[in-house]
Amino acid sequence: MTDYSNDHDLKEQTETIVRELAQAAGLGRGKILVIGTSTSEVAGRKIGTGGALETARQVLNGIEEVQAEFGFHTAFQCCEHLNRALVVERELLEHLGLTEVAAVPIPHAGGSMASAAYRSLAAPCLAESISAHAGIDIGETMIGMHLRPVAVPFRPSIRFIGEARVTAALTRPKLIGGQRAVYRLEQDMNSTSCD
């Protein structure tokens, strides 16, 4: 197990991954990034066995740096003990008409990251679910249920934060219409008509 006492490394690793995904996914104002994090896995332990608020804060600092730059919203997934509810700003919950659920995440019921995020937001609350434009899963926490269809895997230049494997995805609208469909305006419109 590697010693990740150098919190600067965790923040830098997180910043790099979040920035690359934000650029690839076109995350900006009005877009949502869902984040699932096992601080146990970041520390090289089995998920759910060694969460740490300080580790969560360092990862959170990296996310917040990029969020300030791009302007996207964040949703932090709680652990299974809170049914993977999400920590969000109340303004986002109300704007999207999300279903609020009642709990305050703590490290042993919600997870260290959700707990740290809840305490860092201006007006935190929990949403039952969300449909995010992109997601980062730090430590294989399973964020797929909170991504919009269609999820497209994204592979950042670094694949670990601490000892935790990182997977990421962006989403795209569903392609409809089959082989005759046009997906970009600049494509030829003089093709055979279907009238």
Structure description:
With 195 residues, the chain is α+β, with helices and mostly antiparallel strands. It has one domain: Hypothetical protein TT1679 (Rossmann fold), CATH 3.40.50. Helices cover 29% and strands 21% of the residues. The chain has 5 helices and 9 strands. Strands 1, 2, 3, 4, 5, 6, 7, 8 and 9 form a 9-stranded mixed beta sheet that branches. The relative contact order is 0.20. Mean pLDDT is 93; it is low at 1-5.
SSE class: alpha+beta
Q: Can you give the helix content as a percent range?
A: 25-40%
CATH architecture level-2 label: 3-Layer(aba) Sandwich
Overall average pLDDT: 93
Would you identify the regions where 5 or more consecutive residues have pLDDT less than 50?
Answer: 1-5
State the helix count.
5
Shape: globular
Number of E-type strands = 9
CATH superfamily: Hypothetical protein TT1679
- Using the CA coordinates, give the radius of gyration: 18 Å
CATH hierarchy, class: Alpha Beta
CATH fold name: Rossmann fold
Binned strand content: 15-25%
Domain unit count = 1
SSE topology string: HEHHEEHEHEEEEE
Main sheet attributes: strand count, strand direction, barrel closure: 9 strands, mixed
Cα(first) to Cα(last) distance is 65 Å
Summarize the topology.
Elements: H1 7-25, E1 32-37, H2 39-42, H3 53-70, E2 73-77, E3 86-89, H4 90-96, E4 100-101, H5 112-120, E5 124-127, E6 134-138, E7 151-154, E8 160-161, E9 164-171
Parallel strand pairs: 1-2, 1-6
Antiparallel strand pairs: 2-3, 3-5, 4-5, 6-9, 7-9, 8-9
